[in-house]
Amino acid sequence: MSTPRRSFANIFGDALGVPSGDGRSGGSGRSSRRNSDQGKSSLQTYVTPPGHQGNLSVDQQKALDAISKQLEEAGAISLRNPPHYQEAQLLRFLRARNFDVEASREMYLRAEEWKKKINLDHLYSEFRFTERDDVAKFGWRMYFHKTDTAGRPIFIQDLSGLDAEKVFSVTTPDRIIQNFAVTLEHAVRRRYYACTKAQGHNVDDNFMVLNVQGLGLGQFWTMKNKLQELLSILDNNFPELSGRVHIINAPFIFSTAWACIKGWLPAHTAEKINICGADYLPIISQYVNLENWPAHLGGRCKCSHDSPQHACETKDFGPWNQ
């Protein structure tokens, strides 16, 4: 009898998988190996990734200067009194378009137009996702919890036990999009800044985890169109916010869903994704001290000894709250 497959590197493409048994790259993708090495080396010495603040090539710096000037001339940004996150934000758009200044400028202006359309500045101060507990009860839990070894916020999307019909009986697609927009804007304006101060080096993206335990194809097909729209909106308007993405507890049939999802993602986003089965802890521990990893997902963090089992989902612990 053959041994059941427990990790998914070969199913999803060479650059995507890190076999969850031994922590080595499952293929020839240089991006996957580079990011894996970054996670392991960050315990000793942090190295700023290329294309981020503090590690720009001459051409990348020229592209940053050019887009800054063009956007200032268009009235889209101010170079005299910029918000602290402006340069990091511009670099995200540049990375998303391979430092093509014209394409990055157009992307940035379209994103700003979309944010004005949904009135994001108002939502940022006034929006409350009051249905959060009900959405969580029906299997969609989304929360930040502490940081990885590189100092990035850990952003967990837990879809285990998802009942899509019940989720959308207590909320709407527009409310989900608004919640994500406010959540990510808050990360841009506050979370990364707090992590940067705490770490002593620049932090400008997330360590994202998607738990798909028990997620069947029926639930996926129910969510398919809404998920595609959400991913498109987030990628177009909040690019490059996930430094790493780990999909955990992926069942074997997840390969069918992934064939669809992969087609919705830019190649540079797909290259950041590792897909693991139930034996994901050896991979996660390359990037996260298990004291910072929720106990109900196999870590050693319980937030406090007298808290409920899932306290990690509600405490929002991290440098941004210290």
TrEMBL record:
SUPFAM superfamilies: CRAL/TRIO domain, CRAL/TRIO N-terminal domain. It holds the Pfam family CRAL_TRIO_N. It comes from Malassezia sympodialis (strain ATCC 42132). SMART domains: CRAL_TRIO_N, SEC14. Residues 1-55 are annotated as: Disordered. This is Similar to S.cerevisiae protein SEC14 (Phosphatidylinositol/phosphatidylcholine transfer protein). It comes from the Eukaryota. PANTHER family: CRAL-TRIO DOMAIN-CONTAINING PROTEIN YKL091C-RELATED. InterPro entries: CRAL-TRIO_dom, CRAL-TRIO_dom_sf, CRAL/TRIO_N_dom, CRAL/TRIO_N_dom_sf, PI/PC_transfer.
